[in-house]
Design brief:
This protein has eleven helices and six strands. It is an alpha+beta fold and 311 residues long. Among the domains are: 53-105; 151-247, Chitinase A, domain 3. It is elongated.
């Protein structure tokens, strides 16, 4: 008798049984297990790599700051496209910076080291409030530093100039001859053209020293009013000088320089506080210098002893 044909109401046919058998055999194969495990590992590794990718994050505060800087420069808010360009530029900058650090490009770079030191110096400054100084404190400071606030001696004067282009000695001889004529009563003598003023109505000795040199300023300081003197040497050549009048150095009253004294006092207090903060930092480090004198290559920071972190 022939077997009943496969059909909707009959037993499963041979093709279906063969397919299930084949799948069962494949599932039991070691190669199948190996491929399945490999796929799981590959997917897991991809997930881990994605999670471990460095993050470049631009938060709302930084985004507002970038837009504000742009607006300050351009005097208008950025458009959407301009803002997108600003963000892309900032992201690229951060990516390059992170890559540079990853590759160690920030190591042994004197410019980066100095910049970091500057930022650390600002960050480590003592931010404790400094009390307001009273008048007694400022007057004591004024007494110690009165010379700083004195007005310099000032002169009204004339000069006659003889250029070094003549030659050093010919210029000096010309100046001596002109001085003789002036002392003999000549009202005026001709010198050489000069880029600097030939007359000053009111100039400080410190300004003369800056423009002509210390020898010139000393000669002008010692000159008796109304008399010609010289020749005085400068970098330009030779000069004859005549001081017409002088205003002596004066000490300003305390009240007129109180604001300056207050600023100076605060600056000095900040300097002392910052010096103390730096001393505290030094005590956290041990300084080692190769080839130190006496064969000792390791030294604590000056005036300090090494301490453990957290001391």
């Amino acid at each position: 008798m022939n077997p009943a044909p496969d059909g909707p109401g009959g037993a499963p046919g041979r093709p279906a049984r063969d397919a299930r058998g084949l799948l069962s055999r494949i599932a039991r194969e070691p190669l199948t297990h190996f491929l399945a495990i490999g796929a799981v590992i590959f997917v897991s590794a991809a997930v881990v790599r994605q999670a471990q990718r460095p993050v470049v994050r631009i938060d709302a505060d930084e985004l507002n700051q970038l837009a504000s800087y742009w607006e300050q420069q351009m005097q208008r808010p950025p458009s959407k496209d301009e803002l997108r360009g600003i963000i892309n530029e900032r992201v690229d900058e951060e990516i390059l910076a992170q890559e540079a650090r990853r590759q160690g490009l920030d190591k042994d770079d004197i410019i980066i080291r100095r910049r970091l030191a500057q930022k650390m110096a600002f960050a480590s400054e003592d931010t404790a409030p400094i009390p307001e100084p009273d008048d007694a404190t400022l007057q004591a400071l004024y007494a110690r530093t009165s010379g700083v606030y004195a007005t310099p001696e000032r002169l009204a004067m004339r000069q006659v100039y003889f250029s070094a282009n003549r030659g050093v000695e010919p210029a000096r001889q010309a100046a001596l001859a002109a001085l003789g004529r002036l002392k003999a009563g000549a009202a005026d003598v001709a010198g050489d053209p000069f880029v600097m003023p030939l007359t000053y109505a009111d100039i400080a000795l410190t300004d003369l020293g800056r423009d002509y040199g210390d020898d010139y300023a000393r000669a002008a300081a010692a000159a008796p009013p109304g008399a010609w003197l010289g020749p005085v040497r400068s970098a330009y050549g030779w000069h004859l000088l005549r001081v017409e009048s002088r205003i002596a150095s004066a000490q300003p009253p305390f009240a007129t320089v109180r604001a300056q004294l207050r600023e100076a006092w605060f600056a000095d207090q900040r300097r002392l506080a910052n010096g103390s903060a730096m001393d505290r930092l030094r005590r956290r480090y041990r300084v080692e210098i190769a080839g130190a004198v006496g064969g000792e290559a390791a030294h604590p920071a000056p005036g300090a002893t090494p301490q453990r972190d957290g001391d």
